[in-house]
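Request:
You are asked to prepare a plain-text protein record giving the amino acid sequence and the backbone structure tokens, at your earliest convenience.
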Amino acid sequence: MKVEERIGALLKSSGETLSAAESCTGGRISHLITTVSGSSSYYLGSVTSYAVAVKESVLGVNPDTVRRYGVVSAEVASAMAAGVRRLTGSTFSVATTGLAEGGDSRYPEGTVWIGIDGPEGPETHLFQCNKGRKGNIRRFSVVSLQLLEKYIIKHKCFKS
């Protein structure tokens, strides 16, 4: 069973919901989630916030956070996850911001910060790979879902 199917089963069984805020993954996480039959019962939607202005105006990322830490940062990933969760009212959210292609002085190509938010509070994770633009996007998306699955399982353990 694929990770998106396992997440679907977890959310269906609990009646909980999910949303996503994607930058460097460009909607691929949303695509994977919606390939699962019945995902409309738990997946509320996403914001593909490729532009910084959309991160700020739609997701509510503070411009000072972007200036201080950079758009590719744990702080921005966390703020994106919190913003989409607040916007949709979902139980859980996942967000990505990174460099699928090209690098900078701080992070090499293939760097992503993943933000997850939910009842247990925010988490961020740094992940790096070097599989070219398309390969990085695919890998970022799957790793994001794997980390989200672990978060949901942890929540279920705390909840029980």
